[in-house]
Amino acid sequence: MTTLRLKTWPAVPLEAEAITPDRFVGKTSAEIEALPVHHGNQEAALGDFFAVSGDGTPDIAIEGDLARVKLIGAGMTQGQITVHGDAGMHLGAAMSGGRIGVHGNAGDWAGAEMRGGQIYIRGNAGHGLGGAYRGSPQGMNRGLIVVAGSAGNEVGSAMRRGVIVVGGNTGDFTGAFMIAGSILVFGNLGERAGAGMKRGSIITYQTPKLLPTFRYACTYRPVFLRLLLRELRSLGQEIAEEWFERRYRRYCGDLTAFGKGEILAWEGP
Amino acid sequence: MQIDHVVCAFCGCVCDDLTVTLEDGRVTGVKQACALGRAWLLGHSAEADQPPALIDGQPASLEEAVEVAAQILSQARYPLIYGLSSTYCEAQRQAVALADLLGATIDCCTSVCHGPSGIAMQVVGEPTCTLGEVKNRADLLIYWGSNPAESHPLHFARYAVTPKGLFIPRGRKDRTVVLVDVRPTASARAADIFLQIKPGRDFECLWALRALIRGLDLEESAVADTGLTLAQLQDLAGRMKSCRFGVLFVGQGLTQSRGKQMNTAAAFMLVRDLYAHTKFAVIPMRGHGNVTGIDNVLSWQTGYPFGVNFSRGYPRFNPGEFTAVDVLGRGEADAALIVASDPVATLPRVAARRLAQIPTVALDTHGSETTKVARVVITTAPAGISAEGTIYRMDNVPLRLRKFLPSPYPSDEEVLGRIVERVTQLRARN
What we know:
The complex is a heterodimer. Chain A is mostly beta strands. Chain A has helices at 21-24, 29-33, 46-49, 223-234, 242-245, and strands spanning 2-6, 14-15, 36-39, 42-45, 50-54, 59-63, 69-70, 80-84, 99-102, 118-121, 144-147, 163-166, 182-185, 201-204, 215-220, 248-253, 261-266. Helix content of chain A is 11%, strand content 28%. In chain A, strand 3 and strand 4 (42-45) form a beta hairpin. By secondary structure, chain B is of the alpha/beta class. Chain B has two domains: 49-113 and 289-429, Rossmann fold, CATH 3.40.50; 115-284, Dimethylsulfoxide Reductase, domain 2 (3-Layer(aba) Sandwich). Chain B has helices at 35-41, 62-75, 89-102, 115-124, 131-137, 148-151, 155-160, 202-213, 230-242, 252-255, 261-274, 291-302, 324-329, 343-346, 349-357, 369-373, 412-429; strands spanning 2-6, 18-23, 26-31, 53-55, 58-60, 79-83, 105-108, 140-144, 176-181, 193-196, 245-250, 279-284, 308-309, 316-317, 335-339, 360-364, 376-379, 389-392, 398-401. In chain B, the strands form four sheets. Chain B has a nine-stranded mixed β-sheet, with helices on both faces. The chains are: A mainly beta, B alpha/beta.
């Protein structure tokens, strides 16, 4: 295990995409301290901000308030990062493998455009969780994001594949322009969910406020959902027994787009 | 002395047929202008009525102020350059060069007005036209969340509603004007149809219109919370499909209400959908002065219209991360250069407060809330009166601003050029 302890609070945003298991593997702690980071418009070394101890295995623990540290685990392909504190923007953005755990909140664009791997956030996530960057055609494409708390606007926007689970509430435009994939929201689903979605599933356990371009289709027990819920339960997510048993109302949309998407609303106990 | 064909740089209309009277080096008369343009032009004089610069509130020379400004900016790790809406393109170009040199974040007033339109454009594209086409062809005009009667007073008479055009021989009689807003504004008097929607329900209205234009049947209950009836929406959709040339003007009521860039994206998509039926265009009602110009300058120099960050040596764009309200509100910017804008008066309080906490350099033609908190203030000549250059009208048509009154103050372009020069020297030394 390699441990980073924040020793100097960055006065301006610190861009630290060097914090990935891929870059740490096989390096001594001195070599890891020498890895480059960007402190505002100046180059610096990881060791200027973090005390590094450990052996360069692909298992990283970070301690401290990292709300201003951006791009932790961005683009990572393997290994594990555990953040004991808040994480800054772009956590795990474009990652394709490995696992990130945050014992705190994550900033905006966590898991944006990720291609695989898993992100677990104990606290809240910001806007654009698993979403697409501005002007980008696709958001998350494979992988799993689990947020215990709430998330901001545009969760899973233009998402292509993968699963996002939000234990709390989501903001507006959850799954907007989604192409495929699944988003489960156990708290309140924000307004305008699924706006412009082509395919994919948004699953809610409250009565959703739907756009005029979603239409009721049927009430049934989706088989895939039971498998998905069971899988999430095996990963440690709390899943109520009645979510397996009761039926779901299916609304199809968005009819201004392809119309093959769905919002599944649990019928209630 | 009378000067004809003066171009007004106050709002996005950029009217180019003003006549200005000068007496004893002072503007004493303005013809053809609206109340806003007249108030802006009147009273400008060739005399020095303010010190050339202030440092910590004390009068200073231009040279001293440029030196302190260059020192502040070159020592900063996350400097912000903001504003640039009420100056001309050549000065804006210098500001972009400075941002590149400093590794700064550069943002303009677009990010708090029509930035969402810029984001929507990147996703949908912008099916647009010039105001000349509006005048000559448009038989259906829809104003959404915009109040031109008060924000662009000559817009109706010069460009859109009343003028006779090539294919609109009878002018006003040949056009239908629709206003969509959350309350009846002064512009409602100019409209044939006023549709009052519920605040924050623009997206639902636009989405319902898209569905109707695509031929989907909607239930009355599906549009219940828009504030409009299904019949009203069907009537509007019918007018949109059956017009010869329609134009949707989108204002800040759309871009700055709940949904923001999704609202404008919905508007742009609606116009795109209408191409299956007729010719339609969308024009954002850009506000003051040359805010359209800074979008153009930033786009041709960096590829992005606003919220551009150079801290890694190359331009990056991410609204929410590199926009002024956010870098100030999160307390990230450690120095700021404000050009031709008054963010302390216009940005959210938390962002304005940050400008007072960090060393701020302000370039402006007159005192403002921002110059009150700035460490360094440099007085510059007003663009379009005492400085000449290029300005972009709200439909992206460039026009040439004239200088008709001498000024004791340097132009924004000159001051920014001197700061660029000094920062370059400081960089070379280190």
